[in-house]
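Raw record, unedited: Membrane protein
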Amino acid sequence: MFKALEESGGDIRHGAGDAVVLSHAHVLTDPPAADEVWLRCPYDEPDRPSLFERFSQRCQQFEAWCAHVDLAPDLASDIGSRKWMRGLATLLGLSAAAIAMWPDFSKVEAATAMPVEHRERDEFRSQSIAPLAFGADSGRHMGASPLVRPLAQVPERPSIQLVSTLSQGDSFSRMLERAGVGGSDITRVSELIGNAMPVEDIASGTQFDITLGKRPEPNASRALDAIGFRARFDLDLSIERGDDGNLALVRHPIAVDETPLRIRGTVGSSLYRSARNAGAPVAAIQPYLQAVDKYLSLEDDIGASDEFDMIVAYKRSAKGERQVGKLLYAGIERDGKPRLQLLRWGKDGQMFSATALSKPRSVPIGQPVAGRITSRYGMRRHPILGYVRMHSGIDFGASYGSPIYAVADGTVTYAGRHGGHGKYVRIQHTGGLGTGYGHMSRIAVSSGSHVRAGQVIGYVGSTGLSTGPHLHFEAYRNGHTINPAGISIVSRPQIDAKERDAFKARLKSLLTVEPGAALGPMAAAPSEHAEAEREIDRLAPKKIG
């Protein structure tokens, strides 16, 4: 390294003992060229980087590798490539690390401001406001101090007013006994109510307003001062104790308007929905459809432009209650003319057509079950036997347990097991016509009984040779099977000649009811006007002229 000495003519020999002295000018500051000769002392240590420098170099190399590899690429591009899979692995790794270091939110108990023992803690809790589920109680009964003196006799309340409800399966006397009424008063109250109505006819759920007075003597039952309840829709009953100390029955009649509810409207796309939109009660729509279906097909014989007309029994009291009764009239009109008029008549409350007063007529039968036709009358391959044979009826697919109705009035000639028909019912109608109902799960009539049209005679099942729940419906004419589709029943006059005038008068009076008249305001009772006048007004001088 001593180029400066060579230029100055200095002699350099290896192993010479003379010391070499270098001036400041002889020190080289520039790096040596390629042809320059460097001399190193064999005892000098090579320059090694420190630990911090080596760590910095490693970090720089790792950053360069990460920039080259791209561990966090855009996952919205190059989906499925190696680069995308590498980015997905980075995402999953970071997510796993975040979940692993998720903090814990468990409860941490903190010391109270002052040490409290169990006894003091219970005392605080008894005086605090907290839910019972969190350990609160209704207060502690503190021990009496010497300053507290017990009372020799505690005065009772002069009267007690309570409400008691007659539950289902309970008796009237047991209900009064639980309310605290004495045995003698229970007997007297039962006698008084029995004069107005049978005690057994009081409906369950009826509420009784009971007032109990003072006890006649210590440890005896309280005397009954008054009891009141709703006996009927048009009557309230109360029993009150008079000045003479005896119980007496008081009747409180309730004004009731029994104007029938009449609802009219256009059939439209659905007779049921149109009736509901017109405000008809659900309890009235179903019997209306069943009554009409016996004479007209709801799908084929009634058009969208036809008008329906129904009248139901309707009661409303002065207290605001409403009570919907039975269907009284069912009608269908077309072009302003009545096409069907049905009136409830007779002791049985059956719906009779106005044509029952005229000559016999043919009426198509209704559908025996609510379902769809799955197999018609004629030759077919039997689903179980596997060969073609005559199918002598119509199959209606319906859910298991659906009710089956008689299509017309008649007498049950057979009810029981019948070979491949399973549980089977056969009904004989007028004019030599008969019908059969097979594959029932349960029979609801017995042989020899008389049934009405629309009466439930059994329930859909899958007994006999059947692959699933359905009704096999057959029709017979003089003992031979016929196609049940489109058959009719001869309807003869069912109203006696002596009742025709009353039947016509009843039908005429119902048709005079205006639609919606029952929903108007009730006329005020005459007694209400008398009570409205004050006594001072009666004493005032009347003006004349």
